[in-house]
Design a protein that fits this description.
This protein has helices at residues 7-26, 36-44, 48-53. It has 66 residues and is mainly alpha-helical.
């Protein structure tokens, strides 16, 4: 799995995941478990949907030429 999620995207996914989990806890709903998905994609820096759509928010590292 090649990383396809950049730093800003990871931070946003973490925040969204935490908010969804907190909403689930406050409303006492199992729907809060959906918040684990954006957190897991942020932790692994990989999003399967991005792969299917050909999207990458990672910065491309420049290769040095000798």
């Amino acid at each position: 799995m090649k990383a396809n999620i950049g730093t800003n995207d990871r931070i946003l996914r973490m925040l969204v995941g935490v908010v969804v989990i907190l909403f689930g806890v406050i409303t006492e709903s199992w729907w809060g478990l959906i918040g684990l998905l954006p957190i897991m994609t942020a932790v692994t820096s990989f999003c399967g949907l991005y792969t299917l759509l050909g999207i990458s928010t990672c910065k491309v590292k420049a290769t040095q030429k000798s």
